[in-house]
Amino acid sequence: MRYLAEPIRDRDGTVIASIGISAPVARLPKEREKEYSGQVTAAAAQIGDMIGTLED
Predict the structure, then answer these.
(1) At CB < 8 A and 24+ separation, what contacts does 14-17 make?
(2) Cβ contacts of residue 20 below 8 Å, gap of 6+?
(3) Which of 20, 31, 52, 54 could be cross-linked to 5 through a Cys-Cys bond (beta carbons 3.0 to 4.6 Å apart)?
(4) How far apart are CA 56 and CA 39, in angstroms?
(5) Listed residue (14, 6, 1, 11) closest to 42, CA to CA
(6) For 10-17, which contacts have Cβ atoms below 8 Å and span 24 or more sequence positions?
């Protein structure tokens, strides 16, 4: 198994949650880890932005 995760931060930068993906190594090969990691990071940032707007 391979697992990638990123913190979700509120508008103050405080970690309030996390998001991640997991898959068998055959479906998440090391060669594509950077690609998937970028997608997880983007999703975490997007969720953090959405939470930030809810705090207003």
Answers:
(1) 16/51, 17/47
(2) 3, 4, 5, 6, 40
(3) 20
(4) 27
(5) 6
(6) 10/48, 10/51, 10/52, 10/55, 11/48, 11/51, 11/52, 11/55, 16/51, 17/47
Q: What is the pLDDT of residue 11?
A: 87
Gap between the Cα atoms of 56 and 12, Å rounded: 12
Give the start-to-end residue ranges of the domains of the chain. 2-54
HEC assignment per residue over the chain:
CEEEEEEEECCCCCEEEEEEEEECCCCCCHHHHHHHHHHHHHHHHHHHHHHHHHCC
